[in-house]
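Students often ask why we bother encoding 3D structure as a string. The short answer is that it lets us treat folding as translation between two languages. Here is a chain of 153 residues written in the first language.
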Amino acid sequence: MSYPLDEAVQDLLNDDQAVKALATTDRSGQLYVTVDASIHLDGKGRILYLERFESSKTHTCLVSSLWFNRLAALCISRGDLRYHLQVRPVQSVICGPLFESYYRRALAERPGSDLSTVWILEPVSVEDHSYARLKEEEALRHPLFGHLDVWAT
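And here it is in the second language, the structure alphabet:
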């Protein structure tokens, strides 16, 4: 079952100016991270990642994650807002109406480009890593952590 995404996370996922980093692992556990603006929510509320290259490391890791039920991580950030999501690759779409709509869009935006796969990623968990929330948590959990110059004022 998919983890519900609150409005702030949905807004960041659809924000063209937000940084979106997808972290995957290969079969030996080697970590690989890609930053890709194509990650977004579609009209059905699904997280989509548009993979352009069949032979990319991210694509290979996602295929392996799909086969062996491994999670990936997604970080979305803009300014002081930051969310970390654990996601599960649940489907790789390589044909049909969904694929074709994104393929046509890719060609219109960048003639001669390609699209290998439309990945559907299901959120498993979401953590708020925004500066304000982390600062508040740090003050509550570790009140003695801090710079002495701040304490002196």
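Translate back mentally: The longest helix spans residues 97-109. Keep this in mind for the problem set.
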